[in-house]
Design goal:
With 291 residues, this protein is an alpha+beta fold. The protein is 28% helix and 24% strand. The radius of gyration is 20 Å and the shape is globular.
Length: 291
């Protein structure tokens, strides 16, 4: 926790309010949980009302871009075309695609097909085919605020097995959301999603998970979906993070593309699916910011 603040001093969150009417009680609650052995969030990842509104505005653009993809994606187009759409639609709204040049990533969006788990790089060579499932992962910077969400798309005559994988992965978000409660623990959500996936015959990727997001592309905490109840960081009001489990039809093991050092594949070549939403923890539950 930060150094002691006087009750009548400005709150550390930047709201401009006095500490005693802003986050004084919040900090007492965190200190109590910390004394009980809980992992508590740092002040740096708690958003104030102004920041939350900025993230909401960014998220509106993120949603609009994914809506555009939903209306136009089809068999026969390249993933490079999806990248162009994302760049054009994001730029037209006065925003910036967050992935572009992020740690060297060369494109504006991630497009992951079939056995690609995540971080697929758009290419003119990758043509979407009838029967493919594809994840389109859009992230946006608007006036300095970050949003992030992804959707799965089933193209044409997708096999029942792939359709079920996509549907169960989407359902797992709702299962996880039931555990998003102020002062609850991230591990409760992680285990709920993991149990649901296993009950449906799927494995959950261990190495890659969700993350804090809002003032930066990737913030604390790391959000695992192979965690255990009663563990993990406290979900305090003002935290913003993604829920984005990656479910595999086969083994949970994954491999990294050695040529581009970005694209992650299932180790056994079987399909993978992922949906991603961006969530704000509120005083009485949660708010879905981007989907």
């Amino acid at each position: 926790m930060s150094k002691k603040i006087g009750r009548n001093e400005p709150c550390w969150c930047g709201s401009g309010k006095k500490y005693k009417v802003c986050h004084s009680e919040f900090d007492r609650k965190l200190e109590t949980l910390k004394s009980q052995g809980a992992v508590i969030p740092s002040h740096s990842i708690i958003k104030n009302a102004e920041q939350i509104q900025g993230i909401r505005e960014s998220a509106k653009i993120n949603i609009a871009v994914l809506d555009y993809i939903s209306e136009n994606i089809r068999s026969g187009i390249s993933t490079e075309q999806i990248d162009r759409w994302v760049y054009e639609q994001t730029s037209a709204r006065g925003a910036i695609p967050a992935p572009l040049n992020y740690e060297g990533f060369p494109k504006s969006v991630c497009t992951s097909i079939n056995e690609q788990v995540c971080h697929g790089i758009p290419s003119e060579k990758d043509i979407l085919k009838d029967g493919d499932i594809v994840n389109v992962d859009v992230s946006t910077i608007y006036k300095g605020y970050f949003s992030d969400s992804s959707r799965m798309f089933c193209l044409g005559s997708v096999s029942p097995e792939k359709k079920k994988l996509v549907e169960v992965t989407k359902q797992s978000l709702s299962v996880g959301l039931e555990q998003v409660k102020p002062w609850g623990l991230l591990g409760d959500m992680g285990q709920a999603i993991h149990d649901f996936a296993r009950q449906n015959g799927y494995s959950v990727v261990r190495e890659i998970g969700g993350h804090g997001v809002g003032l930066a592309f990737h913030e604390d905490p790391f959000v695992s979906y192979v965690s255990q109840r009663g563990t993990g960081m406290v979900m305090a009001p003002g935290m913003v993070f993604t829920i984005e489990p990656m479910l595999n039809m086969g083994t949970a093991d994954v491999v990294l593309d050695g040529d581009n050092n970005w694209t992650v594949y299932t180790a056994d070549g079987k399909p993978s699916a992922q949906w991603e939403i961006q969530v704000l923890v509120t005083e009485d539950g949660y708010e879905i910011l981007a989907y």
